[in-house]
Design brief:
- Helix 4 runs antiparallel to helix 5.
- This protein is 71% helix and 0% strand.
- With 237 residues, it is mainly α.
- The two termini are 16 Å apart.
- The protein is built from 7 helices and no strands.
- The protein has one domain.
């Protein structure tokens, strides 16, 4: 369901808010979690202060890999069925915001690795497959920019977006399928979480804050896409 000039009043466009309240609140929440993690959460006995990057690294991975790529796949598959432009915009926004959060994962991971493993990068299964997924999502966005026809762009992007997300289950299972240096799950595992209560509380707060930030950015990006498509529809009319 494309946005057409007929659905808008002559000479009007959807309003773009100068300040998004939800985004501002989510940024404050992320900042508060970082303050709690740095100054009010115990230091890990084995890894030292470098372990605190865990409170940014893992929530970003959950938002970027599981949530963003999940939304990318679901909205892409539904677009191929329903041909609704809103689903195409959701897929595009999920890919862009997910690329940002996966980029945070790929930046914070080597910082952690340098302290824990003595090297910035190890070509092991989970790290390499995460980098490959980041490149696939980047390729998805490059494809969107290379195809001029909106219908062809949406259709081809939907196919690529639904296939790219198939890598996520593999990434999740790599620490169990392959021997490597990347640590296994400490919270999302069948047994009891191995984090002390203070660390677990900070970690859960970090997940909540980063998820708020993810959906706030997604909301802003969706609003921008709707404004862009409405302007294009008016120009074409």
């Amino acid at each position: 369901m494309a946005i057409s000039a007929a659905t808008l009043a002559p000479g009007t466009l959807p309003e773009a808010k100068p300040v998004d309240g939800f985004l501002a609140i989510s940024l404050v929440a992320v900042l508060a979690v970082c303050v709690r993690a740095i100054w009010f959460t115990p230091v890990d006995a084995m890894l030292g202060a470098a372990q605190k990057i865990f409170y940014v690294h893992v929530p970003s991975a959950i938002a970027g890999l599981y949530v963003a790529c999940g939304l990318l796949a679901i909205s892409s598959i539904l677009y191929l069925w329903l041909k609704d432009d809103r689903l195409d915009r959701l897929a595009e926004a999920s890919a862009e915001v997910g690329l940002l959060f996966m980029g945070i994962v790929l930046v914070t991971g080597p910082i952690w690795a340098r302290t824990s493993w003595g090297t910035w990068w190890v070509w092991e299964a989970r790290i390499t497959s995460t980098l490959f997924l980041w490149l696939l999502v980047l390729g998805y966005l490059v494809l969107r920019g290379a195809v001029e026809s909106s219908e062809n762009r949406a259709r081809l992007s939907a196919v690529m977006g639904s296939l790219a997300a198939l890598l996520v289950p593999f990434i999740h299972l790599t620490v169990r399928l392959f021997r490597g240096m990347h640590p296994g799950p400490v919270v999302l595992k069948p047994e009891k979480p191995s984090l002390p209560p203070e660390m677990l509380a900070t970690f859960l707060m970090a997940i909540a804050a980063f998820m708020m930030l993810f959906f706030a950015l997604l909301r802003v990006r969706m609003r921008w896409a709707a404004l862009r498509d409405a302007r294009a529809a008016m120009e074409a009319a």
